[in-house]
Amino acid sequence: FATLSTKRSPLKGARAPDMQIRALSGEPLGVEVLGADLRTATAEDVERMVDAMHRTGRGVLVVRDQHLAPTDCERACAMLAPHFVAQQPYTRWPGQSKPIPGCPHLALLGNYRARKDNEFGMDVVKGEVIGEYKPAKQNLEEWHTDGSFLPNPKVAIALYAPQLDDALPPEGGETRFASCTAAFEALAREEQEKLRGLCSVHSWEKFMRLLESRDPGRQKVTAGQIAEKPPQLWPVVRTHPVTKAESLYINPKNTAAVVNKATGDPIPEEEARRLVDQLAEAVVGDGLPGNSKVYAHRWKRGDFVIWDNRVLLHAASPFDAEKYQRLLFRMEFKGEPVLGPSTP
Q1: Cα dihedral angle (109, 66, 240, 134), rounded to 10 degrees?
Q2: Which H helix or E strand runs over 257?
Q3: Contact predicate 67/161, CB 8 Å
Q4: Under a CB-based contact definition with an 8 Å cutoff, are residues 145 and 178 in contact?
Q5: Quick one: 142 exposed, middle or buried, by C-beta within 10 A (0-12, 13-18, 19+)?
């Protein structure tokens, strides 16, 4: 493991004495934190984590062995928020989980069934599926960046695996990550120049219709809800506001069109689809765990994972939902304008 120096921060405070931050061994991206407790972490501790996430992790940070109640997750994300704009309250669109009292920034993911009435303080009964369950597929379309259909796409996402028995599948169910920055840097200079001249249209309706097609029982979005979230036009190449690195900005799950930036004209639909697929393959390869472009996070109880949504594609891995249950707490951070390519 490459262990990172932790002596650079100018902030005051008693840092966690046993905290280690190191690159994930044998993985193309990601850093992990050992010996930290997010319930008592200082601003200095958090700054060191986020700095390593940007400098070494290519946008993925894993904090191991946490013991967090929902309210602890809220507080941990409040500590992280200054580095990622701000916490994002959930608006609860169709299919999302019911709220947890006192935790406006937290939602639940997975097919986990409540083990008692009012579990986590929620308005649920024993046996009810209390998370948002989105069946995953092992294909290119599963890969995405969150909230690219919003006027200010989300900056970061955090997930936490609570300390519960039998709430994670023993096989499958990984969260996979791949670097859009590494993919852009690997392209030929001529291809980079071509892509700097393109934008793509990101559609919430397309995203929701895809989810509905996979789960016939999912609540359908209405025409009014679609009108409230019109499509957004974003550059295919964006610049990170902190690292200043350029990266691809594509979304196989919700791209509705690709547009020539200079003329405003869309390129032919089939050509656009082919281009998005080619760029997605440049980012994720075959997308499967074990390939050299992908970090597949195998969840353990107590894992807290945050990723920089500006520079990554991610995807859930399928698992046998008839045999196993999966539960993750999910937190979001507010969006910011997408910066175009640093080289016009």
Answers
A1: -10
A2: strand 255-260
A3: no
A4: no
A5: buried
Q: What is the pLDDT along the chain (344 residues), one digit of tens a residue?
A: 334 333 333 333 456 678 999 999 999 999 999 999 999 999 999 999 999 999 999 999 999 999 999 999 999 999 999 999 999 998 766 678 999 999 999 999 999 999 999 999 999 999 999 999 988 988 888 899 999 999 999 999 999 999 999 999 999 999 999 999 999 999 999 999 999 999 999 999 998 888 888 888 888 889 998 899 999 999 999 999 999 999 999 998 899 999 999 999 999 999 999 999 999 999 999 998 889 999 999 999 999 999 999 999 999 999 999 999 999 999 999 999 999 998 66
CA atoms within 13 A on the CB side of 170: 3
**Alpha-carbon torsion angle 37, 43, 47, 48, nearest 10:** -50
CA distance 318 to 313: 17
Residue 243 three-state SS: coil
Looking at the DSSP assignment, which residues form a beta bridge with residue 129? 113
